Amino acid sequence: MQLLRPRADAGDDHAAIRLADLLAKRGDQDGAMQLLRASDPHVEWLAGLLERRDDLDGLRARADAGDRYAAWWLGALLERRGDLDGLRARTDAGDRYAAMRLAGLLIKQGRREEAERLRRFGLNPDGSIASA
């Protein structure tokens, strides 16, 4: 780690990502987050770290700001939590990653017919799955 820090501080993206990964594995999630937030090339890694921390608010804020990696991981976290309402709200707001996860969660819950209708017709304004 001592060799990675100066390289990361000097702008070496690979060193920063490797160092953040090591910090996270050692339990220093805050140090990893701070390092990854320092520059845009790290947004994918930051989103993944937020998901592993179950940081729903952090992912939602980044997704709402246009971070597609955060949107992807937010959908994954909502699906893992079984949060149909959260996925529906994100889908209704135009989040295509949430729509995919919503369909996947419906299938996992044995609601294949609903999932197929969602894929074909989308959601009604009230959040229900459209039928035509």
Order of helices and strands: HHHHHHHHH
Shape: elongated
What is the percent of helical residues?
over 70%
Give the uncertain stretches in residue-range form: none
Distance between the termini: 57 Å
Return Rg in Å: 18 Å
- Tell how many strands the DSSP assignment holds: 0
Residues in β-strands, percent: under 5%
Calculate the mean pLDDT score and round it. 85
Summed up, the helix count is 9
> Largest sheet, if any?
none
Which structural class best describes the helix and strand composition? mainly alpha
In brief:
The protein is mainly α and 132 residues long. It has helices spanning 4-9, 13-25, 29-37, 43-52, 56-64, 68-81, 84-92, 96-108, 112-121.
Descriptive notes:
The mean pLDDT is about 85. With about 130 residues, the protein is mainly alpha-helical. It contains 9 helices and no strands. Helix 8 runs antiparallel to helix 9. The chain is elongated and about 60 Å long.
What attributes does this structure have?
132 residues, mainly alpha
Topology overview:
Elements: H1 4-9, H2 13-25, H3 29-37, H4 43-52, H5 56-64, H6 68-81, H7 84-92, H8 96-108, H9 112-121
Helix pairs in contact: 2-3, 3-4, 4-6, 5-6, 6-8, 7-8, 8-9
